[in-house]
Amino acid sequence: MLVLSRKIGESIMLGDDIEIVVISTEKDTVRIGITAPKAVGIYRKEIYLDIKESNLEASRSVMSLTALSKLYDKGKPE
């Protein structure tokens, strides 16, 4: 892990496209701002882990070929 010290208003760059700025500090809390391309997903870690778990559960679910065929048929133009 890389550990850096930054003051309010100072930044850290991740590659050429992502900038992390220290906005403020209060007691045990640090507020940061992140500038990144829209294609980059930015999530709090607990939310990211929830999304990852949901995706894993969804990938484990099994749908019968009959049910899948019915969904496909509904989407066909008449």
Please explain how this structure is put together:
The protein has 78 residues and is of the alpha+beta class. 35% of the residues lie in helices and 26% in strands. The protein contains two helices and three strands. The protein has a three-stranded antiparallel sheet, with no helix packed on it. Strand 2 and strand 3 form a beta hairpin. The mean pLDDT is 90.
Write the layout of secondary structure elements.
Layout: E1 11-14, E2 18-26, E3 29-35, H1 45-60, H2 65-75
- Can you tell me the residue ranges where pLDDT is under 50 for at least 5 consecutive residues? none
- State Rg: 21 Å
Q: Quick check: average pLDDT?
A: 90
* Biggest beta sheet attributes: 3 strands, antiparallel
Tell me what portion of residues adopts beta-strand conformation. Answer: 25-35%
Report the total helices: 2
Side by side, the strands of the main sheet go 1-2-3
The counted number of beta strands is 3
State the assembly state of the protein chains. Answer: single chain
Helix-strand pattern, N to C? EEEHH
Give the structural class: alpha+beta
Keywords:
3-stranded antiparallel beta sheet; 78 residues; 35% helix; 3 strands; alpha+beta
Brief rundown of the structure:
The chain has 78 residues and is α+β, with helices and mostly antiparallel strands. It has helices spanning 45-60, 65-75, and strands at residues 11-14, 18-26, 29-35.
